[in-house]
Amino acid sequence: xxxxxxxxxxxxxxxxxxxxxxxxxxxxxxxxxxxxxxxxxxxxxxxxxxxxxxxxxxxxxxxxxxxxxxxxxxxxxxxxxxxxxxxxxxxxxxxxxxxxxxxxxxxxxxxxxxxxxxxxxxxxxxxxxxxxxxxxxxxxxxxxxxxxxxxxxxxxxxxxxxxxxxxxxxxxxxxxxxxxxxxxxxxxxxxxxxxxxxxxxxxxxxxxxxxxxxxxxxxxxxxxxxxxxxxxxxxxxxxxxxxxxxxxxxxxxxxxxxxxxxxxxxxxxxxxxxxxxxxx
Length: 280
Description:
Distance between the termini: 33 Å
Order of helices and strands: HHHHHEHEEEHEHEHEHHEH
Number of helices: 12
Number of strands: 8
C-alpha cells in the first residue's frame, strides 16, 4: 500500500466517522501504522499535521472557498491572465489540435508514455511531439485497460513505454522534481468550447474552488452550465488541467472521474499547501 492509498483510506474513514471526531490514534490504526509513524508520514505528504488537514475536508470550508474562488477567478480574468503567460503554479502552454490533427489519429507521431507514482497514486502520462497529451490516475488492476485506451485514442501513432520518462514528467507536474517550475507544453484534442473551458481552468489558482456557473461566465456563456460540466468531465490531463477545483453551486464537491475520494484529497492537499504558504 503506497502513501496515497493510506491517505485515501483515512479520508474514506473520516467520511463515515467525522461526527465521532476520531483522534490521531484512531486515524493511525486505519492507516495500519503507529501514531508517531502516521503523524510523520501524513505531515510529510500534506505539509501540515493531520488535525490541520482535516479542517480542509469540511463542506463549510468548501463553501467558503467557493465564494473566494469566484472572486479570485473573475479578478484573474479581468487582470489579463486570459492571454499567454504564467498559469497557476506552473508555466503551461496549452496547444489545441487542428481538425486535421484530430482526424489523423496521431499518424507519424512517436508518443512516449509510461506509469509513474504521484502524491495521489499511480498515473499514466504520455507526451507527443506537441507536448503532454495524456495524464490519468490509475490503479494496478486497471493499468492494462488504461494503456489500451491510450492506444485507442492515438490509433495511428507509434506508442512506446518509458516509465522512467513518465517519472520525470510526474516530478514536474506534481512539483516534486528537481525543477518543478520548468515550463510545460500540453497538447489537447477537443472542440473549441472544450478548449476554452480547459484554458479557463488553468487560470484557477491552487487552493481555490470555482463553480460550474463561474466557469460558464468566464467563457462568455453564462447559461452553459451543463456544457461546461461535460467539458470538465472530458478533461484529458488530470491534475495539470485542474478540473478537481470545480464544485457545485451549493458548495458540494460532486463527482470526479478519477475517484471522488481523490478529488477530496487533491482539494485538501492544495488547501493545506496554501495554509503553509500563508504562515510563512
